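Before the break, one more example. Copy the sequence into your notebook; we will annotate it together after we see the structure.
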Amino acid sequence: MAYKSYLKVYGAGSQATIMADLSTWMQAMGWTVHDNISASSQVLTSPGEDGAKNPEFVHLWVSGNNVYHDTYVFWDAAAHSGAGQSNTHAGSRYTALAAAVTIRFYGDKDWCFMVYGAGTTKGWGHLPVKPTQIANTALTAPASTGLSQVLSVGSTDGFSIGNKYQLVDYSTGCRETITILDVNPGVSVTANLANNYASGTKLGEQPSSFGVYGYPTSDFLFYPTCHYSVSGTGACGSAYNVAYMSDISSFGLVAEPELRRNLYTLLPWGVGRVNSDSSLYGFFKSNFLYVAAAIGDIYMVCKGSDRFINGTATAGAAGSMDDAGQSWTVNAYAGKILVLTTGTGAGQSRYISSNTATRIVVGQNWVTNPVAGTGYMICTEAYYAFSTVFAAKETIGNP
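Here is what the structure looks like once it is written out:
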């Protein structure tokens, strides 16, 4: 499914509408409703863009001025309750929306996030996993708590004595990190267990990268549902986060930078573990770019034979912009991006749905309409910086 983005302006006291819109947008991105509890409480799930990820859960709900976005390993729709919550840190598990606000929302079946107010960002979903996933299997029989337990597994490839791996039981929400004591090739591994696990429990180096992104005072705080320091079905608490973000090259991986013509070089960015574990946890590339930016900066890209088109508007309306001095080929720019660069309405970008010889029609109305004298640029892609270090592809107005 194509990556999608939305933008909407809300008045004060619109928390319930915001939550409903988030749910609607997520469903348009490919998420499904798992538990429709009430008009102000809903649980959604997704197996990821590849359809192979474990379908963990996001609980959207409203309380007072806040819209919560709690993530869980397991959710019981009959009981309306979850297990294995990612965190209880107030600043990362809800969005405070007391006043009027403009919200930008981005995502796909893997990852969703919103930008609101003065660049505050929250997100949730499956953090795209690291490129090499060596140890990844499942239990083929139940396993019980105790010392030196023999775990029957589908594969022992990638498992080494003395290394740590994670168990995640998606039938209960139970998880823990174990140290391998012995390996019986192709048959089993041995470890001390603090919990009971059902057949089918995932075992691997990183069987889950699901969680919530959270706090505006740092470049990146990601709270996973399956943090390696947590055991059982309870919440991770307020301290368990993955908080290391950098370009991929900083992790020592072989990664060629994406060359965007000769204007600038942008790298994919990764997230690594903390607490004395600096391994790469996940990375973004296709829809997110690692940049040096101010929040709200727009990075414009031309690809292939495209070239940048610059100009000055002679008029504007809610969903269009005119340049009477042009003689464009009809619909030559459909599918590209129009960016308002200077003057009234500057800082907005929209997907172009059609054009005439002198008019650009965009797929979603402007927040502030362009006027005569507004500067503009047409490009193939645009990326909106939602922090000082990374940006997201702009597709607002894309059907």
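Residues 253 and 265 are 17 Å apart (CA to CA). Helices lie at 15-29, 90-93. Try to locate both features in your own notes.
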